[in-house]
Design a protein that fits this description.
Shape: elongated
Distance between the termini: 23 Å
Low-confidence stretches: none
Mean pLDDT: 85
Number of helices: 6
Structural class: mainly alpha
Length: 171
Amino acid sequence: VAASVTTFLRRRLATIAILKTIGAESRTLIAAYVLQTQLLGLVGSLAGAVLGVAAQPLIAWVLAGLLPFELSVRPEPWTLARAVAMGVLVTLLCALWPLARVSTVKPSLILRAHVESRLPRARRPWLVAAPIVAGLAGLALWQAGSFRIAGIFVGASIVALASLVALGRLV
């Protein structure tokens, strides 16, 4: 999600700079892009829920001969609502990091668009990262239902991300 939003914003740098030139505030721009990402997250989550419900009978049929018990195929409204909520919340949390950089785009960028095509770095990235990490950890706890399992998941995720960052710096 964060990579998609970053790419989307990188393509919109000139537009953001022009909007700032004519007086748009960073808060307004961030709110507009949050709304866009949330709508996409909602559509994607609903599509995933529909596909999941549609695939359930097929999966039950495929697994029928492999399991010593019969699978019940009925959609659970609470589970579907949780899945959609998780999708929307993860979209919001993962979009915050790149969206925080919108406030650092200077209107003068429209004059230097061919030279400077990268999103500027956020001024205080830890101020954005802390609530994102806390929110994702909270979602992991909500999904896992156990501090231990959520802690293992969060710890493994941190190790995986640190490994990817380290590998990225080597390349």
